[in-house]
Amino acid sequence: AESRMAGAPAALVLDRVEAPLVRTTGNDMVRSPGDRAGPDPVTAGLVFVGYGLKDAALGIDDFAGLDLQGKIAIALTGAPASLDTETAAHLARTSKAIGAQAGGAIGLVQVRTLKEAARLPWDKMLPRAFQPRRALVGADGKPLGDGSALKVRATISDEAAAALFAGGAMDFAAVRAAAATGNTKGFALPGSVTITRSQTVATVTSPNVLALLPGSDPKLANEIVLISAHLDHVGMKANPKPGEDFIYNGAMDNAAGTTTLLEAATALVKKPPRRSVLFMATTAEESGLLGADYFARQPSLPMARIVAAVNIDMPLLTCDFGDIVAFGADRSTISGAVNAAAKAQRVSVSPDPQPEEAIFTRSDHYPLVRAGVPAVFLKTGWKDAKGGMTCKDAESRFRLNNYHEVSDQLDLPFDWAVAAKWTRLNIGIIRNLADARQKPLWYAGDYFGNAVAPGAPKAARPAR
Predict the structure, then answer these.
(1) Given CA atoms 331, 394, 93, 58 in this order, what sign does their dihedral have?
(2) How confident is the model at residue 339 (pLDDT cuts 50, 70, 90)?
């Protein structure tokens, strides 16, 4: 289902000041359109829920003791620094909405920590304010996904957040200061808000594209290594000026990834590996990983056959990289396949240099992980092949000037030798996984292995 705003911009009206305080979409609020066509106002009280995280295995429950029934949950963005970065990204993406809905809330509004405000200035958030919302729908026509029954989803500016917290147990500045130390507790906020809005709702379809290369070993061909890359970008610019470029081509994000997938298929067809390989170009990644999520919910082949996933998304191909970041690899024996392929291309494997970006949950391997599949998502690193850090500067320039901009197109300074090196690296990982004697196993004691595949056999983690 695709929801688009209709009529006047949505407004958030705070009712507990002498004159009602109005905050509008595109100025102080970035919110998702609702699921019901036409005018759709929502009025509710407010409850601050800290970071809004809940995980029994980790002993976390930010919702404990709070009355959320019929209220809007106000949650800080992100997660405390005490959590490892990939677990933090997972909980921040899922448990805020799941926990709010489970507690009886009708909405979730996020307020930004100091770290998030520094990472993404508010004026960079605002272009998202008028984008449509897309969601998978079930056979009953209702949306699927984490917190799918919530009526309201939004993020608000620091100024709007300060107004919501005024008169509460702590003001917003104090809440932010406490969040920086990880010491946050929830409490009810005074008053209520009314969010006025209207939207149109339509049903749209968009396919994933899949192709299966049968394995060459009759004993292993039933097992599948899945390779994914998303084929979509962010569409066309709303209300362009006369003569202005309005097409978001997405050359780096993610034509570079889908091209790598096609080149890998060309190479692997010439000499099929022992296991089968499923190539999947996914749709609607930019709308919330919807194509990959659909596959994970309605797989074209039995999910039990898929033993590993390799995802390719937005490699930076303007700098000769000397290292890579392999998100998720060190949670399973996939790490061995990655390390061997990296060594063959004379690149090192580095830890995540940008944990604040929560990249582990932001691409199409993630729904496969949630379905229990060991997975890896590669990114080019910050080091260059000569030992310097010019690739960090190249990525910073791209993210500042070209990421999700119309300028992400082929006139960027692509280095095709680097693209070939990147492709050889990915082919090496795929072959290592598809030819290995043993299928990948989660490491014993790993958070994700325990959470998503508790009954699956595990491997002992090698000594570091």
Answers:
(1) positive
(2) very high
Report d(CA 96, CA 78) in Å as an integer. Answer: 10
DSSP string, 115-179: HHHHHS-HHHHGGGGG--EE--B-TTS-B-STTTT-SEEEEE-HHHHHHHHTTSSS-HHHHHHHH
* Residues β-bridged to residue 348: 323
Asked if residues 318 and 443 have their Cβ atoms less than 8 Å apart, the reply is no
Distance separating alpha carbons of residues 220 and 235, to the nearest angstrom: 41
- For residue 223, what are the CA distances in angstroms to 150, 215, 301, 387? 38, 8, 11, 39
Q: Are 275 and 224 in contact (CB under 8 A)?
A: yes
**Phi and psi torsions of 339, nearest 5°:** -60, -40
Query: CA 108 to CA 113: how far, in whole Å?
Result: 16
* Per-residue pLDDT band at 20 (split at 50, 70, 90): low
* β-pair partners for 46: 72, 189
Residue with the two structure tokens 């729904």: 367
CA–CA gap between residue 182 and residue 185 (Å, rounded): 10
User: Could you tell me the pTM of the whole model?
Assistant: 0.90
